[in-house]
Every structure is written in structure tokens, then in C-alpha cells.
Design goal:
single chain; Jelly Rolls; 5-stranded antiparallel beta sheet; 31% strand; binds magnesium ion
Amino acid sequence: MRAAASLWATALFSQTKPEETEYYSPVPKVVTPGAAYGKPPSDAIVLFDGKNMDEWVPTKDTSSTSKWTVAKGVMTVNKANGDMQTKRRFMDYQLHIEYQIPSYITGSGQARGNSGIFLAALPWGAGGYEVQVLDNYKNTTYVNGQAGSLYKQYPPLVNACRKPGEWQTYDIIWTAPRFNEDGTLLSAARATVMLNGVLVQNNAVLKGDTPYIGAPEYKKHGASPIKLQAHGDKSEPISYRNIWLREL
Ligand code: MG
């Protein structure tokens, strides 16, 4: 098979040498990978390393110093202090983030460990483009609102949730939307999402932001913070750890 393909290629490209389609610059930058899967590579911006929330501010008052609870290397949602967002703003990136639904979680449907990762936090509507965080290990809800969904737009390709009490990982590739001068959409946002190493969103093209009620909409914005949701459900707060990204 290989020999046949090679003969065909030789015949087709007989006037050219292999070197004619090979090039040597620009040379890709060297990035030292993390020591193990999930550890930040050398060019990562670390947003939470287990010690403090210096990279974060409360969404409801970005001048406030109130945070979530940091202990034993993890940060746990403090619902009274609300959503937390990064001080920095980003366009396109590769994000790694880990979360844990507590083993003693209660509630059902959307009221069972609800949180969320807003890939670009926006100061209007429901607040941006949300990748849902929820306990969907044997917990059903509307499919375009379960863990791994791009909330209210795309259900996950599969349900890859681990049991409550276990740490879970999200690896997300985000391409921010681009807008024309007049505010119209130039190119839609795109997201690829792996939940626990399993592909759940494959280069999904977003239809707009993710409102709770109504259709998604695009409104012009630029680089934006990343926001973590303190959901108002009555279930026990969830935790996050090991958050970093690489700008693309
Ligand atoms: Mg949510």
C-alpha cells in the first residue's frame, strides 16, 4: 500500500524534489511541558496555584478584596461573595481548570453543584459564554445545560462526569469572537472542550452569549476576564484548583 502510494506520488510530482515543500523558519518557540499531565507548561499564566486568589476579584465589586475560601490548596465557592473573575483579560487561550463536587452534595437537576466557567465574562445578560459545571453523575437535567455543555447552546458529545468527591478536569481551547467597527459580528466564538480528557465540544461555533432566558446574542466586546460562577442554588459549594492558561 505504502509502495503504491509512493509510486503514485513520485509520478505526480516527478518534476519536484521533496525539499521544495520543506521549510525551516519561523522555528516554533520552545515550551517546556509540565512535569505531569495537568501541570502548567513553561509559558502558562497561573491563575490559581493553591495559595491565594491574588489573580481574582469579585464580579459584583471589582474593587472589593472579598474572595472565596482558600484552604489546603483549593478554593471553594463562597456564595455570599458571588462570582469571581480574573483581573487579567484574555482573547484566545488554552485553559486548564480542575473542580470537585463535594461527595456529600445534595439537590437535583440544576440545583446540584451548579457553577460554571464563563470563557469571556461580559457585563450584560447572563454574564458571558458559559461552560457548565454541574454534578451530572446520575443526575439528569436539560441536556444543553448539563456538565460539558456550552450552556443553552450545545449539549456535551458524551457525559464524561466523574462521581462527586473526585477531582475533574476541564481543558478548553477558546477562540474569542471578533467584531467589525460597527459592532456587527466578524467571526463567531469557538470552543473545544475536554472533560476528564474526553472530548465533549469539538470546535463548537457559538451562536452568541448564553442567556438563561431567550436566544443567544452577540454584542461587541474585546479581551475579557474569565469568570467562575457562584450559583445561587441551595446545594453545597464546589471547589476549584490548578487553574492556568496559555494565551494563543
Ligand atoms: Mg452554571
